[in-house]
Design goal:
Distance between the termini of chain A: 12 Å
CATH class of the largest domain in chain A: Alpha Beta
Largest interface: A-B, 28 and 29 residues
Order of helices and strands of chain A: HEHEEEHEHHEHEHEHEHEHEHH
Helix content of chain A: 25-40%
Number of strands of chain A: 11
CATH superfamily of the largest domain in chain A: Aspartate/ornithine carbamoyltransferase
CATH architecture of the largest domain in chain A: 3-Layer(aba) Sandwich
Radius of gyration of chain A: 20 Å
Shape of chain A: globular
Oligomer: homotrimer
Subunit structure (chains A, B, C): Homotrimer.
Pfam families (chains A, B, C): OTCace, OTCace_N
EC number (chains A, B, C): 2.1.3.11
Largest sheet of chain A: 5 strands, parallel
CATH topology of the largest domain in chain A: Rossmann fold
Number of domains of chain A: 2
Strand order of the largest sheet of chain A: 9-8-7-10-11
GO biological process, one term (chains A, B, C): citrulline biosynthetic process
Family (chains A, B, C): Belongs to the aspartate/ornithine carbamoyltransferase superfamily. SOTCase family.
């Protein structure tokens, strides 16, 4: 594997899920693999879970970690040929190559801006690192995908030891702010690579990118979609058609015990209680959100292990 | 020891002082004890001394350290049952459990706000970590106490090799801003556990929480209180009765050479020169403030050593 | 070596260049030298290259690294005898000594303010650390010099394996903002210690400090100065005479392929493309700016190696 920009970079998705579970069982099995290797984690946006879990994963493998928070402080130029006599002080071509001088692997977080669909789809920051850096790049959530979360989600479902081909529902939920599509996109991609029946449920106007959802049932009736589910993954996203807009916040879409039935409840966190999900659900034994957050470490560790192996 | 939220969590205060001095003499005596263990240091407020000394202490024990500055960037919800459709984006219940997924010990700094006494006394952030995280919590200064500083202060006094049962004075000093009570509270608590004669001196209206000062002489005459002192610990705090208010800044309360006499001068730093203490005092041989700051490392190291021992 | 505040602190400049190249060839040759030693990196200004390269250098030597960003959050007092009842909350005397309690080496970045020449020339922050800390201090760019960059530049030129006594040109270039003199000063100092012919070219009004340039040709005709150069180092700086002012931004001073001739192009980065240098130059094979950035690690590592040796 050269980079981990998307779940599709994994040569064998199920083997990677198994590797992560193996690492969870024995986190220090490869603690010398990353010796004398450095990961630079570059954050263009804030992070809690991704920062801590990826740092922990790297250290479990014996790597050195350098964290660089560049939100708001680094005016990068992305266009070719610009006369840089205004706000931008450094071209992404130099920035990416320079960081690569000090790191063996670079992990990057650069969210969608949710204002310009075409700009977001270009993934300018992530792709500039991949194009220029010359070292493996790990996507810590870009505009379009969050493949460390998607892998985590598959690990967490596998751990539940459900019946063969369980029913998995991805349900939209209301939220007061405009949120990206990356988590939902990567969850769908991960489920398509897994032996599950996936159903997406969201209100009209909230269908995700048809290239991502192709071949998957989308049901606008949440109650019907959730029936007999084994896993219900709840997540808000802003509209894809009316790009980045919050077009409704109907509280009837909140996940409740009644809709949950016997299913396990999943969410990537952070979550707004009693908006996205009622307390009775997240506080119940059916909620696996904390284990899910914990699995972030082992998803990252599996990815770094694969990258380090090809580096050595 | 399960947590270090307060000096009273220590099973044997004097033995911990002795352990710290032992570690000062041989800082790497337990450098394998923290191997494969991670401390997450979470700062809801700025830190210099506490950050560097606690990080150093953890590394002396072989631990990995992750520092998380969350001041101003994390809108946490504390109430149960809230419909989180406004500013708060994550509930403290999830936040605490999630961080615990990535750390073996969590250290937390969350100052008093000094606006609402009842709210401060609830220690909402610290107590939420203790209640939910499921891993040992270290208090790096909360609303009510700063037990790493209190332990440091006892270590520093012990090092002075004073006469049996020395006279220790805690003297209020003027300051232009409203400061918390945590350092003074923990100093008093530490001295009550030590073989010293403690006198507190402060202007009228500046008596600290009577539950903390119970049994200790409070003298409003600073000159009289300081007579024949062996140690004078100077510190400003805002009013406890007129909660959080600066009710006077009388420069006559500044510590001077005359009042100091033959005593050693202590302060937790940072200190405003020629307001809290005159240059002649802090620049004299009687000032031990730098050694005191240095002892922060060994106080933290003793505490972490005790927590790690019970963890392994 | 006690401190690395300036290139002149090096006992043998050429031997240090050779040591850096040796470390580049075998970065882990001394990976136990820094064991149980901590460097505290204190940034009063933002940093990307210096932060990452110095941290990497320290880790290559087995050191622990603590990074402290204090820009905007630390109101330090520098004057003696001040009554600190206004904005400043800590005196530099305490601040420097306290940090030294937790570190074996302290690296400091504190830029010129470019408003008051006399104040900048006092190097108040750097010199306070040297005076008070009692541990070795490394200059990570001060008002007057950037000796880690100067050493890097000499390393990079040595790697080019040029003819004996190559012609090296330092050329001013336009820039919309007011920039410090530190990089240019240290480049000149490094070249004076090297076996090269140095020519400086800048517009009238942009002559650097005559104490630095003494003995070096300054030519106001850029085209003539660049003729037959082996190395052209391009850098903007604000006026020294009209201190800190941008007195012109004439785009004719931008470095072009025509002026470059057969020379190698160097710049410390970040660089504004098509203002300081045209794309055709920086994107050509003659540009060595990325290798130059990479050499920052080995310059820092050579300096830390020398300091650690004298520490042990």
């Amino acid at each position: 594997m050269n980079h981990y920009s998307d779940l599709k970079d994994l040569k064998d998705f199920q083997a990677t899920v198994d590797l992560a579970l193996e690492l969870k069982n024995d986190p220090y099995a490869y603690e010398d693999l990353g010796k004398r290797k450095t990961i630079a984690m570059v954050f263009f946006n804030n992070s809690l879970r991704t920062r801590l879990s990826t740092e922990k994963a790297a250290r479990n493998l014996g790597m050195d970690v350098m964290v660089l928070n560049v939100s708001n402080s680094w005016n990068l130029e992305f266009e070719d040929g610009t006369i840089m006599n205004l706000d931008t002080a450094e071209h992404i071509k130099e920035a990416t190559q320079v960081i690569a001088q000090y790191a063996d692997i670079i992990a990057v977080r650069a969210f969608a801006n949710l204002k310009d669909k075409i700009e977001d789809q270009q993934e300018k920051i992530l792709n500039a690192f991949i194009k220029n850096a010359g070292v493996p790049i790990v996507n810590m959530e870009s505009a379009l995908s969050h493949p460390l979360q998607g892998l985590t989600d598959a690990i967490t479902i596998k751990e539940q030891e459900l019946k063969k081909r369980p029913k998995v529902v991805l349900s939209w939920a209301p939220h007061p702010r405009s949120l990206p599509h990356a988590v939902a996109n990567s969850f769908i991609t991960a489920m398509k690579m897994s032996d599950v029946d996936l159903v997406i449920t969201n209100p009209r106007g909230y269908d995700l990118d048809p290239e991502i959802t192709a071949g998957t049932e989308i049901n606008n009736d949440q109650i019907e979609a959730c029936k007999n589910a084994d896993i219900i993954y709840v997540k808000n996203w802003s509209s894809f058609d009316s790009y980045g807009k919050v077009i409704q916040q109907d509280i009837d879409w909140m996940m409740t015990q009644e809709k949950l039935g016997h299913a396990k409840f999943m969410h990537c966190l952070p979550v707004r209680r009693n908006v996205v999900v009622e307390d009775a659900v997240i506080d119940s034994d059916q909620s696996v959100v904390i284990e899910q957050a914990g699995n972030r470490t082992f998803a990252a560790q599996a990815v770094l292990k694969l990258l380090l192996k090809d580096l050595n």
